[in-house]
Amino acid sequence: MTPTDQNPAKPVTDVVLIGAGIMSATLGVLLKSLDPNLTIAVYERLDAVAAESSDAWNNAGTGHSAFCELNYTPERPDGSIDISKADKIAEQFEMSKQFWASLVHEGKLPDPTTFIQSIPHMSFVWGADNVNYLRKRYESLLHSPLFKGMEFSEDPAQIANWIPLVMDGRDATEPVAATHMPIGTDVNFGSLTRCLFKHLKEQPGVEFHLGHEVEDFRRKADGIWRIKVKDLATRQDRIVRARFVFIGAGGGTLPLLDKTNIPEANGYGGFPVSGQWLKCRNPEVIAQHQAKVYGKPALGSPPMSMPHLDTRQINGQKELLFGPYAGFTTKFLKKGSYTDLFRSIEVGNIRPLLYAGARNLGLTRYLIGQVLQSPQERTAVLREYYPKANPADWQLEVAGKRVQVIKKDKKVGGVLEFGTEMVTSADGSVAALLGASPGASTAVAIMFDLVQKCFSERVATPEWQARLRELVPSFGERMATDPALTAAVRERSQRVLQLAG
Fold it and tell me: Transmembrane ranges (predicted)?
């Protein structure tokens, strides 16, 4: 069927958001908060919002703030600890909390307990070398106001008081250490996404289309994007016109970005990684654990595979998960196709893909090992964090897919990135988000960056500057170097979001 342009007399949509996950929800609400007159259209190929990476069962939900994630604080060759990435991520998550608190205060989000809960964030290690590392990490982090209140202990009795399951049955002669951050959070990003979209759909000038798949893009001489969209229920195609396009489709972003034909998209590739969790089915065990406990990732494993024994609140029920266990997949989405990886390969990115693959053979071996793990081997890993774990209490659940970014590099040909990356056209008319962790937790900071790049003229106006600071009081400031600012904005967020102080 040949698609036809929508009614030419109909005004062009200001903003089209592709993908109904946390990124699109955050950007849509942010833009509407800055300019209520903007028209927005959302297109999602599934029949529900937050059904892929934003879903609670597909997302770690930690509220990544670097309190417990050891891969954000690498040890330098001289033995010192680099906390720069931890500072950055902690600051970004504080931006998220400020934004959500502002929306709660303005009545745009409901009772915050529907999407965020207080829970301690902990790091736990064993062995003399790891204990020494964690001690140095703790001492380094205390120089930043963002980590004020963190506790450290090598006392088994104190650690057992924090996390009894982890210490019960452990070898008493083995050195152990833990850090404890009482102001950690658990975030249900699926619930948050649905709340954000509920508010957005109630605003004038917003269209919402589930079950619609974006197939292609064309940009004409007038600067307006023509987007080919298929209604999956009727199988009819149509052309949607937009001034600005955001592609926030998780693992589906890469092939859509390629179809825009913007030069900035050239050379990007993706390496998909699947995940699995062990889910506890024993209420008595679940009741004994109240923390997010992160350990050191296995050698060669991707950051998304940091092992953690994780208390969650999902759909009003306390859950306990352990994992994730990684694996290789050719799907870019949980509800995607096994041909996704192969269809993403093209002339422009095959060289970076090959170079990145050659430089990451250890990761490939690790993923193969994870795929071949037996139930007994998975239980053995669990028992490193919960020595008395009974396999009968746990069941394996499939988690979400993550597509790690591969991009061109002048020196080595291609590199595998483990964070999130924003790709924008030179004129700011299209933007796309690639990558994985910390992703959802830093959505607000990422969308603030996007708005400054793609709506730069409007961001420069006094009205938008003032509104941005209303939404995120620390906007434009460095919390990591300002203890008074950090204390003030954190107190506000904790109070409004009803979190432990």
Answer: none
DSSP-based three-state secondary structure for 367? helix
Tell me the residue type at 20: A
3-state secondary structure of 446: helix
Can you tell me the distance from the alpha carbon of 480 to that of 146, in angstroms, rounded to the nearest whole number?
6
Q: What is the pLDDT of residues 462-489, one digit of tens each?
A: 999 999 999 999 999 999 999 999 999 9
Question: How far apart are the C-alpha atoms of 456 and 449, rounded to whole Å?
Answer: 10
Does residue 393 contact residue 256 with C-beta atoms inside 8 Å? no
Q: Find the radius of gyration of the CA atoms of the chain.
A: 23
pLDDT tens-digit readout, 139-187: 999 999 999 999 999 999 999 999 999 999 999 999 999 999 999 999 9
HSE (side-chain half, CA atoms, 13 Å) at 411: 2
Q: Which of 92, 98, 57, 82 is nearest to 141 (CA)?
A: 82
Q: What is the DSSP string of 343-356?
A: HT--TTTHHHHHHH
Whether residue 382 is predicted with pLDDT greater than 70 in this model: the reply is yes
Task: Tell me whether the omega of the peptide bond preceding residue 324 falls within 30 degrees of 0, making it cis.
Answer: yes
Side chain identity at residue 3, one-letter code: P
Q: What are the Cα distances from residue 119, in Å, to 133, 185, 216, 293, 402? A: 24, 5, 44, 11, 25
How many whole angstroms separate alpha carbon 419 and alpha carbon 435? 6
Are 166 and 159 a contacting pair, CB within 8 Å?
Answer: yes
Token digits of residue 158? 């104190």
Determine the topology of domain 4-488 in CATH: FAD/NAD(P)-binding domain (3.50.50)
Counting beta carbons within 10 angstroms of the beta carbon of residue 202, is it exposed (0 to 12), middle (13 to 18) or buried (19 or more)? exposed
Reported pTM: 0.88
Q: Looking at residue 1, what is its pLDDT?
A: 43
Q: Which amino acid is at 366?
A: Y
DSSP tally for the chain: helices H, then strands E: 16, 20
Instruction: List the domain boundaries for the chain.
Output: 4-488
| Residue 175 to residue 128: CA distance in whole angstroms | 6
CB 73 within 8 A of CB 82: yes
CB 47 within 8 A of CB 273: no
Neighbouring residues of 136: CB distance < 8 A, sequence distance ≥ 6: 75, 79, 80, 81
Q: Where are the beta strands (DSSP E) in 184-331?
A: 185-187, 206-210, 212-219, 225-231, 236-247, 269-280, 292-294, 308-314, 317-328
How confident is residue 375, by pLDDT bands cut at 50, 70 and 90?
confident
* Residue 16 near residue 225 (C-beta atoms within 8 A): yes
- What token pair was written down for 33? 């908060």
